[in-house]
Structure of PaaI family thioesterase:
Amino acid sequence: MTDAVSAGERAHFAALEGLYAAAPINRLFASRLEVVGPGLSRIHFDVDERVYHAAGAAHGTIYFKMLDDAAFYAANTLVSDRFLLTTAFNLLLTRPVRAGPLIAEGRWVSGRRRVLVGDARLIDSDGEEVARGTGTFMRSHIPLSSLPGYSG
């Protein structure tokens, strides 16, 4: 993070990382959120045979989960009071993924009021893009401060 990031933003980013870590779904998909800065996030995770489909590569579920999370959290870095909800998400799967570390890089694209747009790309251990996605996210009525793990 740059020096231009305020203490309040740093606290919000750390709280988002705590919120991500506390989500029950991440017991099934071991992963870690890194908030890089305003409008930027990364999800770090490893793929192994537990998430393979019958042909021996990662099931599309893992692509969606990690790309959606990365784009979602990139957008939620810009919203400090409310939890966002995914309203649509489009995927482009370009290469099969097998065992190894992956990073989903999320980026806020536009919007700040009611609806935000974010995109993400999935990068394998060779630095190759294997998928990308774009999502729209809407402010909910759920205060972030009411959610387990968020302590901003």
